[in-house]
Amino acid sequence: MRRFLTLLVVGGIFSASVAAQDLDPQKLLQPPTDTWATYNGDYTGRRYSPLAQINRENVSSLVLAWAFQTHARSLQSMPLEVNGILYISGGNEIWAVDGRTGRQIWHFARPGAPLGGGNKGVAMWKDRLYMTTPDAQLLCLDARGGKIIWQIAVADPALKAFGGVAPLVIADHIIIGTSGDTADLPGFLESVDPMTGEIQWRWDAMPKQGDLAWNTWPHDTDVATRGGGMTWITGTYDPQLNLLYWGTGNPHPVENSEARPGANLYTCTIVALNPDTGKLVWYFQSSPHDTHDWDMVMTPVLFDGTFHGKPRKMLAQAGKNGLFFVLDRTDGTALISEAFVPANWVAGYDQRGQPMPRKDKEPQPDGVLVTGGVGTNWQAPSYDPDTNLFYVNSREAMGVFYLTMPGKSAEGWAGRDFFLASKSMLKAIDVETGKVRWTADTEGRGGQSGILSTAGHLVFTADMSGNLVALDASTGNVLWHMYPGGPFGTGPMTYELDGRQYVVFLADSIAYAFALPVR
Amino acid sequence: MRRARPRNRKACAPGLGGDLRKLSLVAALLLAAALWLRAQEGGPPAGGPAAHHAAGEAAQAAAAERGRSLFKQNCAACHAEDATGGRGPDLIRSTLVRHDKNGDLIGPVLTNGRVDKGMPAFSSLSAGQITDIVAFLQSQLTLFDLHTRFGPYPNDIPAERLATGSVEAGKAYFYGPGGCSNCHSPTGDLAGIAKKYNPPDLEVRFLYPSGTPSTAIITLPSGQKYEGTLLLNDGFNVAIQGKDGWYHSWSTNAVKIEVHDPLAAHAALLEKYTDADMHNLFTYLETLK
Question: Which of A8, A124, A314, A382 could make an SS bond with A451 (beta carbons 3.0 to 4.6 A apart)?
Answer without folding.
Answer: A382
